[in-house]
Amino acid sequence: MQKPVLTINDLAADFLQCPNRHDTGSEKWDRYRGRTTSTGKEILPFWVADMDFKSPDVVLEAIRQRTDHAVFGYTHETPGFATTLTTHLREQHNWQIDPSWVIGVPGIVTGLSITARLLSQPGDGILTLTPVYQPFLFLPKLAERRSVRVPLHADTNTQRWTIDWESLEAAMTPDVKIFWLCHPHNPTGKVFEKEDLLHIADMCERKNVTVVSDEIWDDIILDEDVQHIPFASLDHPAAKRAITFVAASKTWNIAGLGCAAAIVPNEDFRKQWRQAGEGLVPMVNPLGYTASEAAWKDGEPWRQKLLDVLKYNKQLAVDAIENIPSISCIPPQATYLLWIDCNEWVARQRPGQNQPQQACENAGIGPSNGPEFGGPGFLRLNFGCPPALLEEGLNRLRDAFRAHETSGQ
Ligand SMILES: Cc1ncc(COP(=O)(O)O)c(C=O)c1O
Fold first, then answer.
1. Which of 108, 251, 285 to mutate to test the pocket of ligand 1 (most atoms within 8 A of CB)?
2. Largest CA-CA distance found in the chain, in angstroms, rounded
3. Of ligand 1's atoms, which has the minimum distance to the CA of residue 182?
């Protein structure tokens, strides 16, 4: 039986409003602080991937208990960190790991940099599918590696992003040692299916490429008929040596607490891990461990309510975009991000006229700019906020594209 469409009355009250984040050092809200449109509107931020919701009470209570202890010395993985994560992955994703495989890292971006140094040499290539979360594109250069990019293909008939297998195979030249997979994928919201994952596994095994799978979005799956399959859970040799990253940060909105987990089944890689990050990577802070553990252990009821709000918001956003001529999107299967194609609109503009990002900011909405992800003519919109705020943002998006609709004709 199909699930009924959610209405605003189905959403939990905690998600209908959010605290004012000004003066908290919020990266998201400070970007446009003090900048207004020509009509005096504050520019609303819909860019960086954190949500405006409060974290769940179970997380807040765990942090309170930890601060009551009142000693915050150097901390390695807390006793429950690896075991709660192990249970969480088994229950949510049907993946049995050994707790000894888990290494705490202060962030996945940091963890990706460690894998570059651990699994390749200067000058080697790191492969990824574009568009993609910006650090996948700029980290290789910082580690003196080469960024190798294979574009995903937008199949408008099936409304899915697909892999061009021939291009992927051709890109795996002998110097390519690592495949950074973003799964679920930011910014398109694609969840790779088992068939795709097995195909990647076969190719990487043949070409001696290690898969590093960033699964930070694994707990935000929006489509009812889609299941997240961890790459390393496949029954395949490439899966056995893969490295996976997960975190509670996106789902329970604790990104500022700086805590993620690397799952490294290969013992040699684990032994070399700390050496690869030596002098670069600090320890995780104790509150990060506490909050992540509480989220995985007791955060499921809150996550279910969050998913309702995000599904509702996704529909609002997709419907709004359908009604704006010359922009479009393939609805995301996961994440709280919408990847909007504005190329038709761009083609209608006079040379030198506003680009999509500028047009949006002029109308009072600040999404992320597509070229940063390797997607010219695109925008990324973060819909992890109360529906009323999203509606205001979507009205402004309409204004942005309506204002210039016919200007090139
Ligand atoms: C795919 C992906 N990986 C990693 C991160 C950031 O992770 P961290 O804050 O743990 O470095 C993000 C944040 O948006 C992301 O989308």
1. 108
2. 67
3. 1
**CB distance 137 to ligand 1 below 6 Å:** no
Q: Per-residue confidence of the chain (409 residues) as pLDDT tens digits?
A: 556 688 999 899 999 999 999 999 999 999 999 899 999 999 999 999 999 999 999 999 999 999 999 999 999 999 999 999 999 999 999 999 999 999 999 999 999 999 999 999 999 999 999 999 999 999 999 999 999 999 999 999 999 999 999 999 999 999 999 999 999 999 999 999 999 999 999 999 999 999 999 999 999 999 999 999 999 999 999 999 999 999 999 999 999 999 999 999 999 999 999 899 888 899 999 999 999 999 999 999 999 999 999 999 999 999 999 999 999 999 999 999 999 999 999 999 887 777 999 999 999 999 999 999 999 999 999 999 999 999 999 999 999 998 655 544 3
Six-digit token string for 15: 């998600």
For residue 269, the one-letter residue type is F
The structure tokens listed for 279 are 């002098």
For residue 2, what are its two tokens?
């199909």
Tokens matching residue 123: 């000058």
HSE of 4 in the Cβ direction (CA atoms, 13 Å)? 5
Pocket test for ligand 1, best of 133, 181, 280, 368 (most atoms within 8 A of CB): 133
Report pTM.
Answer: 0.96
Residue nearest ligand 1's atom 10 by CA: 107
